[in-house]
Amino acid sequence: MMIVHHEGAIEMSDLAVEKADSEEVRALAEDISAAQGPEIEQMTSWLEAWGEETMPMDHGGMDHGGMDHGGMDMDGMSQEEAMGHLEDQSGPDFDRRFLELMIAHHEGAVTMAEDELADGENPQALELAQKIIDDQQAEIAQMEQMLQNL
Length: 150
Fold this sequence. Notes:
150 residues, mainly alpha
């Protein structure tokens, strides 16, 4: 689920690299994308080593194809709805909305990582969960500050 969730963050960040009004928002988006790509590769390699599927399945055995992005919703919107909403924004409005949605997205990742810390067993996965919590909480604080300055 974290792989799909990270893919959603990268998708949003790639759009922000193209559309952000502020250089500060564009740089943040590049940093988010650059940080989460290697984590996806690491998690995918673990799943493959454990003989697990790399795409989550729902309870009916249906492959979501990544569209639900780990059940994450941002301000009541799915990943697909959030992307459509962002694509309709421009200028400072885009920057503000990107930051608001990415804060909500990061908060979801922190919750997922906290669940892993509570219930997980693999030492490497637990270490990654703590890294995700630390990194994303720092980025949330940075984005909240950026929002105040818009």
